[in-house]
Specification:
six-stranded mixed beta sheet; two-stranded antiparallel sheet; 8 strands
């Protein structure tokens, strides 16, 4: 696995330079983000706010390479899930601070991400919706399947059953809910 992690680390550095993804705080936060206009169906958040096509959002990306490095050597699936949950929960306050400090903070409607790791995210304030069945999300599902192969100690066997057991979902939260939950001064 260490050889594949080295290659992945090189790829991740190139990918970082070629995209508009920004670190919230490199090494301390599991998220990378990009500020962009939302393109998709209208999403209604748990606090009944709507994110519509054209709205400004923070697009969330879990820093998969960092997570793979963090979970290196962990063989228990439950421990992996709990580690990721802890990393996400610990990153949320910094995400809220980051969003609140942006010059465009008043325009931002919410945060949106796409993941197969959607179990228990409602407890963190996220809402969940299915993704459209288009080429982009089919590619993303394949990419996440490939990451599973690299990260998980039993990757080959997991990959065989990946499509039957996992679904790709959109997770999202309104800016107001993020700030209410995770920014103490809000």
């Amino acid at each position: 696995m260490s050889g594949s992690l080295v290659i992945w680390g090189i790829w991740d550095a190139v990918y970082q330079r070629c995209t508009r993804l920004r670190y919230i705080e490199k090494g301390r936060n599991i998220f990378r983000i990009v500020l962009l206009r939302y393109r998709g169906e209208t999403l209604t958040t748990s606090d009944n706010r709507q994110i519509r096509a054209g709205d400004l959002i923070l697009r969330l990306h879990i820093h998969n390479y960092r997570f793979a490095c963090e979970c290196k050597g962990i063989e228990d699936d439950l421990k992996l899930v709990l580690l990721l949950r802890r990393l996400v929960a610990n990153s949320m306050p910094q995400l809220a601070e980051y969003l609140a400090a942006l010059p465009q903070a008043n325009e931002i409607k919410g945060i949106v991400g796409t993941t197969t790791l959607n179990k228990g995210v409602q407890q963190l304030g996220f809402s969940i919706a299915d993704v459209p069945a288009n080429w982009f999300y089919r590619y993303k599902h394949w990419y996440l399947k490939f990451l599973l192969l690299l990260i998980h100690r039993d990757g080959w066997n997991r990959m065989k059953n990946y499509n039957q057991r996992t679904t790709l979902s959109r997770v999202y939260m309104s800016k107001e809910e993020l700030l209410r939950r995770y920014l103490p001064s809000s």
